[in-house]
Design a protein that fits this description.
By secondary structure, the chain is α/β, with parallel strands linked by helices.
């Protein structure tokens, strides 16, 4: 029996770049999650009795929403739901599940790198049949439906045992609880030279941050690659991530950083985030920025079996440094600059125009799935180090000596009042057309604009994707409001200085960006608008 539950719309159920994210207390309101899930099912394309993947990062409230989503899926005509044991599936693993089992799409329950717990964050994202995040046309349709929804459908059924592999019937639908790790680990073995990595006898520290990557990293790094037991730290997923913030940056993964800067540091250090799609790369005494990691991986990817054929192209989000563009030029392959959000890479990947993609926010991936993939990046780094018999520091120095160095940092001003953030962006937007030729110390503005992207595959246009100020010589500042927070607004300021290969290649990043930091405040009036004299986080 299908039950119809009457409801009224909630305001503000507009998916951002990575789905709908709010505090747990918001999602826990009567009908809140149910309204959104029903809105998804009301608008997405699917065949009758199709398959749906449901995965989560194990955070607080996941199990509750998974049980509700299963019943709603049964009432909406799905034939099968695939869910990982414990309700767990990393975002890249869920993408692989959608693709492998030819699902019509999937619900990924995560707020990614945001903290978890009763007073923290929760999120729901819909991925389409290619395994990637829903494009803007779909998310707009979902949002429009949430503004008028007046009912959601469900069935009477007991909770599914999420901790036991096997099949359960809910209504007329089969729920298959499967091992979420094995399929993904098998895929990684097809892409990377596991025997070469084992033979290299590298030492490593991996911080899973009590998040979803723990079981995957333990299986792949310790069980299949033979790294020492204990290589994976904080490997048991917890609903509150052990009380920590599962964002793999130098603030929240400081313990790993300290390990890698110690005299007896292992060869390689890495971390991943809440849902497993981001990565942090640190060699012994050498931190690698996400932008540089993308460029270095692209330059050496041919050393891994899965990429021995070479790259079709490289794509990066607009705020990501141009380091990867220089690699693309050297390889003779196209480079694409897209808006922030992995969904913009989907068309390029599906069309075979690119092989490797990356974002400055610690996300890199390839055409093996349609999401960024933290462990994939770690394994490609290990494959490169093993084959080249080189340290992370030596590889970085060699890369910069070949391509020059893009000194780069991101300054985040978090939890700003929305009115203040909007006023800052509006004021800066209004004066963009007057900035060319303006000087800030030794910096001269060459171009100032609001970034707009024309998709080369489907011809769609995405406007207002961030404000760019480009200076003569290759330096630049980008201003953008983030869509990944749950309270207030986050202003992200991206600072980039290009130093040619004959220049200063091993200086402190803060020193090299000092003039850009001062210029950013002068351009946007950050202190004047926000009252902040320093960012909340620097990455």
């Amino acid at each position: 029996m299908i039950k119809t539950v009457s409801c009224t719309p909630y305001a503000g159920q507009k998916p951002g770049t990575s789905g709908l994210r709010k505090k747990v207390r918001v999602f826990a309101q009567a009908n809140y999650a149910e309204n959104f899930i029903q809105a998804v099912f009301d608008v997405v394309e699917r065949e009758p009795a199709s398959t749906l993947v449901i995965g989560g990062d194990g955070r607080y409230h996941n199990r509750t929403v998974i049980q509700a989503a299963i019943r709603i899926a049964a009432a909406n005509g799905y034939g099968r739901v695939l869910v990982g044991t414990g309700g767990i599936a990393s975002t890249p693993a869920a993408s692989h599940m959608i693709r492998k089992y030819r699902a019509s799409g999937g619900l990924i329950l995560s707020a990614s790198h945001n903290p978890g717990g009763p007073d923290e964050d929760f999120g729901i994202k819909y991925n389409i049949a290619n395994g990637g995040p829903a494009p803007e046309g779909v998310t707009e349709a979902i949002y429009t439906r949430t503004t008028t929804i007046d009912r959601w459908l469900t069935v009477d059924a007991p909770d599914v045992d999420l901790d036991t592999v096997g099949d359960t019937v809910v209504g007329a639908m089969t729920v298959s609880v499967i091992d979420p790790v094995a399929d993904y680990a098998d895929l990684m073995e097809t892409l990377f030279d596991f025997p070469a990595i084992r033979a290299a006898k590298l030492t490593m520290a991996f911080d899973a941050m009590h998040a979803v990557t723990g079981p995957y990293a333990t299986e792949i790094l310790e069980n299949r690659l033979g790294f020492a037991i204990g290589t994976v730290r904080n490997g048991i997923p917890m609903e509150d991530f052990g009380g920590h913030h599962p964002d793999p940056n130098l603030v929240h993964a400081k313990a790993l950083y300290d390990t890698m800067m110690a005299p007896d540091a292992p060869d390689f250090g890495a971390a991943s985030d809440g849902d497993g799609d981001r990565n942090l790369i640190i060699g012994r005494h050498r931190f690698i920025t996400p932008s540089d990691s993308l460029a270095m991986l692209a330059a050496n990817a041919h050393l891994a079996p899965g990429y021995a054929r070479g790259l079709a192209g490289i794509a990066r989000s607009m705020p990501t440094s141009a380091a990867a563009d220089r690699v693309a030029a050297a390889l003779g392959v196209p480079a694409f600059e897209t808006p922030t959000g992995w969904k913009f890479f989907g068309n390029l990947l599906d069309a075979g125009k690119v092989t490797i993609c990356g974002e400055e926010s610690a996300g890199t991936g390839s055409d093996h799935v349609r999401e960024k993939d933290g462990l994939w990046a770690v394994l490609l780094w290990l494959n490169i180090l093993a084959v080249r018999k080189i340290s992370v520091d030596a590889l970085a120095r060699e890369h910069w000596a070949t391509y020059g160095r893009n000194y780069y940092a991101r300054h985040d001003y978090e939890a700003l009042p929305i009115a203040e953030a909007d006023a800052l962006i509006a004021e800066l937007t209004a004066k963009l057309s007057t900035l060319r030729g303006t000087t800030f110390g030794a910096l001269t503005v060459d171009v100032a604009d609001s970034f707009s992207y024309l998709d080369p595959v489907d011809g769609s246009t995405s406007a207002n994707q961030g404000l760019r100020v480009l200076f003569a010589g290759g330096s630049r500042i980008v201003f953008r409001l983030s869509g990944t927070g749950t309270e207030g607004a986050t202003l992200r300021v991206y600072l980039e200085r290009y130093e040619p290969r004959e220049g200063s290649l091993d200086r402190e990043t803060g020193d090299m960006l000092a003039d850009l930091i001062a210029a950013a405040d002068s351009l946007a009036g950050i202190a004047r608008h926000t009252g902040r004299t320093r960012p909340s986080v620097i990455t």
